[in-house]
Specification:
Elements lengths: L1 H10 L26 H20 L2 H6 L2 H30 L8 H24 L8 H79 L1 H21 L5 E2 H18 L4 E6 L8 E2 L3 H14 L6 E10 L2 E8 L12 H14 L4 E6 L5 E8 L6
Length: 381
Amino acid sequence: MGAIVSVDRQLESTRSPGPTDPVDSPQSLHPRRKVMSLRTALTWATGVALLLSVQFLIQPFVWRNWPWDEVIEAWIWILLDRTVVASAMALFTLAALRLPVRGPVLMPIVIITAFALGAAAGEWALILFGTDGAAADAETLVTHVFRWTGMAVSVAGIVYLWQRASDTHDAARITELRRLQTERQIVQAQLQTLRSQIEPHFLFNTLATVRRLHTTEPTQGAELLRHFLDYLRATLPALHEQRSTLGQEIDLIRAYVGVIVVRMSERLRVTFDVPDALRACDFPPLTLATLIENAVKHGIAPAADGGTIHVQARGRNNALEVVVADTGVGFTGVGGSGIGLANIRSRLRTLYGADGVLSLENNLPSGVRAMMRLPLRKISP
């Protein structure tokens, strides 16, 4: 058995470091993290010792030259040797991690010193107990200590670099989430500001039209008031929601254009082509209403004969495409500030990333064609 253990000691110089180490935890190089418990450290040390001792069993010449019972007995002693040294290194490293030492230079020095002291203590314990795997002389002892320390430093360095990369990735994700949250808050504030600018103007004009029609055209006045109440019922809850459905948005703009059609004395015509199967799809609230408002204000209203707005929705390649096309005056270079469109783009980017797109193009023969494209997601009732 002693001959077999001696052969294994000679093989140590050619082995490759194992995937773990007596102190393989990121805590050894990340003092910010909580230090592992003694039980956990010893468990890891035992596992590492088992992995390192297995190398002995996979040597073909061992099984050819010794009986299997002597091989197993020798392997058990080798496992005990490895366990003693690995446990000693774990204990010394745990003690080092609890020292009031910090700093990018001093802390690694303390950890490496703990590796070396633990390895030396473990090897010295083997000498005291007189095991077959004990170092035969001082030179062998030093060689074993350097081998254990070098392996521990190498594996700890790999774990440290992996942990740093993981921490950097996590930090980048946290930064991105914070940026998106901030952008979402900014977009919501801009939308609220935009609505506060539009709503009073829309409200007063509608009420003024209701008062006028009450005396000139009572039937139209009653119809306008009905559409206006439907619009308020749909709009007020949407102001406080982050998500809505396409069906809810369509109901909202139907009520809105019902008001506008009466106010514009039939100069506005609106058509819808929205399949019922798409009404349950996820859709950001008030974005479609903003496109309709733009089409009315900057496209249809300036046109002498008014015009038509066509709203169409299609599902294509796992994406929802909603188009608002008007036959108004088209791109004139004058009119609004573009805040509404900028807010829609920011909101789509915040909610859906690169999958949320707003595009504008000329609508033939006249007008503007606006299309929103976002992921096709249905909201469960």
